[in-house]
Design a protein that fits this description.
alpha/beta, Aspartate Aminotransferase, domain 1, Aspartate Aminotransferase, domain 2, 2 domains, seven-stranded mixed beta sheet, PyrdxlP-dep_Trfase, PyrdxlP-dep_Trfase_small, Kynureninase, hydrolase
Length: 411
């Protein structure tokens, strides 16, 4: 792709996804390239939440569990997410957080391999995934062992002792995409079940869980699905695994929760992976984001994501190549999710300086600047301008301020 501004303007003019930008609340001048951490606010969400609060809760009160079908929200929204991920209706439930769902999925998978003891992942996986593995090891009294190996050695470590492989499909730092179908196939050949973390996949790339013969998967609702801060996550369990017994056997996962029986009886299907009372307000916001995503053509979305990424790399090479940035993301767009990451010794300070110039990206320790490419609202011209503002802070050394050297609690 040439980097001429006229061509960039033409790409924006012909972009079939361009009308979606008007459905998000984004102020003029802001370039938001952090949708891989927190998606932008859909305009429909505020009205939906207001109706849920003032009408369903305020007027309907407890009758809204049935009258407004609050009780069916986890399954209803789960089915909508399933359609985005190549899963069947009844295989996805919207509930809890990604971390909690990792615990549920990994323990359920491990219960199906009782003669094996290892939960395996890679050393660079997102920390919460590994933390949950370590917690499961401690809770099991050491019967289950948490093991992490170098990313390139994961498939070679699939031995007869491995019960579950936990991997992230799109790496949170680099954006590297793992081949879900190939990894799952090789794991199954060794009798290993796979739990996929789709936090940077759902709504960002085309996913085909059933086509890949996936076992379990989890993901969050607040990144590319635009469900809002702390939005409920989701859990996928392939239909063939619906007899797996979840360790977190909460009352909404009971076969008949309102009979208040003394003993637990698991609900049929993926509903058994519910736990506590559904968070109605969070689910209402999430549904707005999911409904918006459901209207988009994932093939067009992925096509634009690739073009945005290539444009970003080209502009960085041309305009910032002299300032010591190292591309962390794969250069091959087929191996890269919907983000671009660069390493730089002063990456943290640069991200802070960019915020002062109305470019919001994010930073991941020790030195990675991440730029999320969200095709529903990011324009090609935004990419060009973001790189220009980054060049400006490099030329002027605007990042070199004492206040930028103290790292905040959230980066």
């Amino acid at each position: 792709m040439k980097d001429g501004l006229a061509e960039v303007a033409d790409l924006d003019a012909r972009d079939p996804l361009a009308p979606f930008r008007d459905e998000f609340r984004l102020r003029d001048g802001l370039i938001y390239v952090d949708g891989n951490s927190l998606g932008a606010l859909p305009k429909a969400t505020a009205a939906r939440l207001a109706a849920t609060v003032t009408e369903e809760w305020g007027e309907g009160l407890i009758t809204s569990w049935l009258g407004a079908n609050w009780v069916g929200a986890p399954q209803r929204i789960g089915n909508k997410i399933a359609a985005l991920l190549g899963a069947k209706a009844g295989e996805v439930i919207a509930a809890d957080s990604t971390s909690v769902n990792i615990f549920k999925a990994v323990t359920a998978a491990a219960s199906l391999r009782p003669d094996r003891s290892v939960i395996l992942s890679e050393t660079t996986n997102f920390p919460t995934d590994v933390y949950m593995m370590q917690g499961i090891e401690a809770f099991s009294g050491g019967r289950l062992k948490s093991v992490t190996v170098d990313p390139d050695a994961v498939l070679d470590r699939l031995g007869a002792d491995v019960a579950v492989l936990l991997l992230t499909q799109v790496h949170y730092k680099s954006g590297l995409i793992r081949d879900m179908a190939e990894v799952t196939r090789r794991a199954h050949e060794r009798g290993v079940l796979v739990v996929w973390d789709l936090s940077h996949s759902a709504g960002a790339i085309e996913v085909d869980l059933n086509g890949a013969n996936a076992d379990f998967a989890v993901g969050c609702g607040y990144k590319f699905l635009n469900g809002g801060p702390g939005a409920p996550a989701f859990l996928f369990a392939a239909e063939r695994h619906h007899d797996a017994m979840p360790v977190l056997s909460g009352w909404f996962g009971h076969a008949s929760p309102f009979t208040f029986e003394e003993d637990y009886r698991a609900a049929a299907g993926v509903t058994r992976f519910l736990c506590g009372t559904p968070p109605v307000l969070g689910l209402a916001a999430l549904e707005c984001g999911v409904d918006l995503m459901a209207r988009a053509d994932m093939r067009e979305l992925r096509k634009k994501s690739v073009r945005l990424g290539q444009l970003f790399i080209e502009r960085m090479t041309a305009r910032c190549g002299e300032f010591g940035f190292a591309l962390v993301s794969p250069a091959d767009p087929e191996l890269r999710g919907s983000q671009i990451s660069y390493a730089h010794p002063h990456g943290y300070e640069m991200v802070q300086a960019l915020k002062e110039r109305d470019v919001i990206g994010d930073f991941r320790a020790p030195d990675v600047l991440r730029f999320g490419l969200t095709p529903l609202y990011l324009r090609y011209a935004d990419v060009v301008e973001a790189v220009e503002r980054l060049r400006d802070i490099c030329v002027t050394r605007a990042w070199d301020k004492p206040e930028y050297r103290v790292r905040a609690a959230v980066t």
